[in-house]
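Following up on my earlier thread - several people asked me to post the actual chain instead of describing it. Fair enough. Here it is, all 256 residues.
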Amino acid sequence: MKLKALIFDVDGTLADTEDAHRCAFNAAFQEHGLDWNWSKPKYADLLLTAGGKERLAAYVDSLQATAEERGALRGQIAALHRSKTEHYTRLISEGRVPLRNGVARLIGEARSANVALAIASTTTLANIDALLRVNLGRDARDLFVVIGAGDEVPRKKPAPDIYLYALRNLAAPAPACAAIEDSALGLKAAKAAGLFTIVTPSYWTRSEDFSEADLVLPSLGSPARPLPPRAAALVGNVVLGIREIEQRLRAVEMSA
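Reply from S.P.:
Thanks for posting it. Predicted structure:
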């Protein structure tokens, strides 16, 4: 089957952004006079809730506090999240978060093969813009036919809404598209939308259950940093390219 579109998650997939998010949250807490500090283990647990504002709400709900205190803290969530986004985009603009291995290569290969590119993420458009602009150039948004971000849909992953939004705007059938994810929440969302799903786990998600994935790889691979032997044998190449994805799609089509 001809691949029509690649749909990328952002955080953890395009780039390992999560520690920058964590640091930005902590900076926002300090700015707002809160004594919260999210450690790496704590943030890994919090990532089980998709969406920054939703993550803040889940954390507030977990605190040993009165109902009145929790209500007051929930009232600060929007302001906290705005501050966090400002701190995060500053970190990104300083070039601290490069794209993951093989991402730029696969994006370029997709464009050469006339495969449409899309994004399906729970992060904000400002966060996506900053990451793309720094790593792919000022006009990077133009590389993507669809950018599904933040509050475009009412339900965050693992609900399939953001992927269904991307598919509607691509006007492409799900069996002819592939999603690239890094988390179990994202995998569930992509599979619920009927997508062939490739998972490249990050530091934050590597212990999660990816048994439903169509393909799990440590990265997409590049000539400078090829896939390790076991992953390369699984793919049939030292990188995952459009040809290899289409071969997998054909195998799925034939087995259906």
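The chain has a mean pLDDT of 95. That should answer part of your original question.
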